[in-house]
UniProtKB/TrEMBL annotation, chain A:
UniProt record, GO biological process: amino acid transport
GO molecular function: transmembrane transporter activity
Record-level GO cellular component terms: plasma membrane
Lineage of producing organism: Bacteria, Pseudomonadati, Pseudomonadota, Alphaproteobacteria, Hyphomicrobiales
Keywords: Amino-acid transport, Cell membrane, Membrane, Transmembrane, Transmembrane helix, Transport
Protein's name in the database: Branched-chain amino acid ABC transporter permease
Main location: membrane
UniProtKB/TrEMBL annotation, chain B:
InterPro entries according to UniProt: Leu-bd (IPR028081), Peripla_BP_I (IPR028082), Urea_ABC_transptr_substrate-bd (IPR019968)
Domain Leucine-binding protein: 26-366
Gene3D superfamilies per the UniProt record, alphabetical: 3.40.50.2300
Keyword Signal in annotation: yes
Signal peptide: 1-23
Protein name: ABC transporter substrate-binding protein
Taxonomic lineage of the native organism: Bacteria, Pseudomonadati, Pseudomonadota, Alphaproteobacteria, Hyphomicrobiales
Keyword annotations of the record: Signal
Length: 290, 408
């Protein structure tokens, strides 16, 4: 294998692992980072987005539009669940873990009962390209681009828009924000909805590459939680660098010794990171400022 | 309320005291299968097949005049549930026989409990072979039936460089060992082997490792719905290599679930799939669809479960007893056979495994199936040849090619 092929191959594998980590984690990171709620139904929001996307494709929508429909639908479901369940538990974080876990069980079992154990997927579009002797999938490049776009968009929404300012104010000092006339309940609902919609987007965009089953969300869960744990509370200065770090470890170990080594290495990296940086990458970066 | 409980209690005591079963006492069959979780797609059909067989047998007068009563629990693709429910069916429900298990990990989780309570369990699944245990009857196909046929055929057709990707637990590890040995015996070369943890769904790096190794074909021993994502991802990266497997199509009907041509040029050895074009297979499929019109696919394990029910009926009627030792005396006669959906099958007394007609199923680009080759009456010979003889002794063990029984 010549130098260029090796380079392209390594970059592609790193990008692929990075995209998976970022997209798995972003919805969880928004809900945990902004609201402090540990959402154990995260995987089911991903599954919800994936199923909705496949339904939309079956109704005749083109795939990109179907993914947006899936994402919006998951966001909507998220807002309803925030109103009905999560809202009542903001002061009881441990209970909210239990409640969202319950939601996750109901969602995956409900899907199993309604739609059966498996559903036909939509097939991966766009085909492949060759570099040297290796062939690569174009769709994986779309995943990488989406991951970067999602990070940029989140940054813009939470830092450059009026909603973002109000959201951050609500999270930092809810009573003060509400005294100044911010409808904090609405902000909580919308933020939870954004988190759920991001999970739905992840489900939708990965749906063409995966098996459609009611428990498909669980394959994202481990990566999602470790990225958020390593990243810490902030989506932008936490999640993105954490995903870079873990993607490097995972991609290089997997190419060297196979998937098992990749998984072990990923988890070891997590343990070492939180031993050295108990507050995650966020804590490390903010240390200078506090 | 209390008096009714008392009545029920007295009645139960009366039954217990009476000892010998009444003619109309039901025969209780425990069914522990994954109806939810990662494996559900492949295993819900097993429960349906058992229900179909129970209905047919009951309509025809039951087993020796006694109706079948099924005790069904959903094991949720979770090994702990298997242990919990196995204790429950053997201790509390006091079933006569248990039909249990999909993954080999689940079988090894419950097997010690079956041994402890000296129960009898049917494992109706293809697996990595080697279980030599008088408490178990295995109706699924084993490596000498699936790999000794498949791998040499593939090597002759496509070449002798082989790459294996396998699920990282006992099934995948031991099956990969079989493949490795057979490739070597036939003068081939393993150019790579990778074990994938269960639940992994992202395969780009694996696909590239395969491309770098340039095999003639890939042996895919992937298990569970998450790992099945491999095929879609390999197709979208245009890997384009033929695949050989003992688990795909026949269990998870991937050719029905994925968009063509992601499973194109996949070769599977299986003892049954619904495409098998024989009158017996068609009749079975018709009965199945009459009872379960929405069944997505009737797979190998469904057929084996159906066969197992009928074998059990035959054994109980011939032994005139549901006791394990009496049933095993019948098996020892060596002619417990059944003409089922997959052709004629017989139980081997030495290993309590089953002979099979093995079909080589080939998935075309449009995901239709053809059968380039059929091997008739392949016996589960390996355990017996290596020295497992359950008619003589019961080691309760699982053997592998690198850990065979010690010969006496």
């Amino acid at each position: 294998m010549d130098f260029v092929t090796t380079l392209v191959s390594s970059a592609y594998q790193f990008g692929d692992a990075f995209a998976f980590l970022v997209l798995s984690a972003c919805g969880l990171a928004v809900i945990f980072g902004m609201m402090g709620v540990i959402n154990l139904a995260h995987g089911e929001f991903i599954m919800c987005g994936a199923y909705m996307t496949v339904f939309a494709v079956n109704w005749g929508l083109p795939l990109p539009l179907a993914i947006i429909v899936g994402s919006l639908f998951a966001g909507l479901v998220g807002m309803v669940i925030e109103r009905l369940v999560v809202r009542r538990l903001y002061s009881r974080p441990l209970d909210s873990i239990l409640a969202t876990w319950g939601v996750s069980l109901i969602a995956s079992q409900g899907t199993l009962i309604l739609f059966g154990p498996t559903m036909r997927g939509v097939g991966t579009p766009l085909g492949s390209f060759m570099v040297g002797s290796l062939s690569f999938s174009y769709y994986r490049l779309v995943l990488m681009a989406t991951a970067i776009a999602v990070l940029l968009l989140l940054y813009l929404v939470f830092n450059k828009t009026r909603f973002g300012v109000l959201a951050r104010a609500t999270i930092q000092a809810p009573h003060m924000a509400s005294a100044l006339g911010v409808d904090t309940n609405r902000i909580y609902t919308l933020t939870f909805g954004i988190g759920a919609a991001l999970a739905g987007l992840t489900g939708g965009i990965y749906a063409p590459t995966m098996t459609m089953i009611p428990t498909m969300g669980t394959t994202f869960i481990m990566e999602a939680f470790v990225t958020v744990v390593v990243g810490g509370a902030d989506v932008f200065i936490g999640t993105a660098p954490a995903a870079v770090l873990l993607a490097v470890v995972k991609a290089s170990l997997t190419s060297w010794q196979g998937q098992l080594a990749g998984q072990i290495g990923l988890l070891l990296a997590v343990i070492i990171t939180i031993r050295l940086l108990p507050k995650g990458v966020t804590g490390f970066i903010l240390k200078g400022r506090v | 309320m209390t008096s009714r409980w008392l009545q029920a209690g007295t009645l139960a005591c009366a039954f217990a005291v009476s000892g010998a079963a009444f003619a109309a006492d039901p025969i209780k069959i425990g069914v522990l299968e994954d109806q939810s979780g990662d494996f559900a797609a492949a295993t819900i059909g097993k429960v349906h097949a058992i229900e179909l067989a129970a209905e047919e047998i009951n309509e025809a007068g039951g087993i020796a005049g006694r109706p079948i009563e099924l005790v069904v629990y959903d094991t949720q693709s979770d090994n702990n549930r298997y242990q919990e429910f196995m204790r429950r069916v053997l201790q509390r429900d006091k079933v006569d026989v248990v039909f249990a298990g999909f993954s080999s990990a689940s079988r090894e989780a419950y097997r010690p409990i079956v041994n402890q309570f000296d129960g009898l369990a049917f494992y109706n699944n293809q697996y990595e072979g080697g279980v030599c245990d008088a408490n178990m009857i295995v109706t699924g196909a084993v490596p000498e039936q699936q790999f000794s046929t498949l791998i040499p055929w593939m090597m002759e057709k496509y070449g002798n460089k082989v790459y294996t990707i396998a699920a990282d637990y006992n099934f995948g590890q031991i099956s990969a060992e079989w493949v490795r040995n057979i490739v070597k015996e036939n003068g081939g070369e393993m150019v790579g082997e990778e074990f994938i943890p269960l639940g992994v769904s992202q395969f780009s790096q694996t696909i590239q490792n395969i491309q770098n190794a340039k095999p003639a074909f890939v042996v895919t021993l992937l298990v569970g719905a998450a790992q099945a994502s491999y095929y879609e991802q390999a197709a979208s990266a245009n890997l384009g290599l033929p695949m050989a497997s003992s688990v795909n199509v026949g269990q998870g009907y991937e050719h029905k679930r994925f968009t063509p041509p992601s499973l194109g040029d996949m070769y599977v050895t299986t003892n049954y799939i619904e495409e098998v074009d024989t009158p017996a297979s068609k009749a079975f499929l018709e009965k199945f669809h009459a009872k379960y019109p929405n069944e997505p696919y009737v797979n190998q394990e469904a057929a084996n479960s159906y066969i197992a029910m009928n074998l059990y009926k035959q054994m109980v009627e011939r032994a005139n007893s549901t006791k394990r030792d009496d049933l095993r005396k019948v098996i020892a006669e060596g002619d417990v056979c059944f003409d089922g959906p997959s052709g004629n099958v017989c139980l081997d007394p030495k290993s309590q495994h089953m002979s099979h007609t093995i079909y080589l199923a080939h998935v075309n680009k449009d995901h239709s199936i053809d059968f380039p080759k059929v091997w008739d009456n392949i016996k589960p010979y390996w355990l017996g040849d290596e020295g497992c003889d359950l008619t003589q002794s019961d080691p309760d063990a699982q053997y592998t090619p690198s850990n065979p029984p010690t010969k006496q």
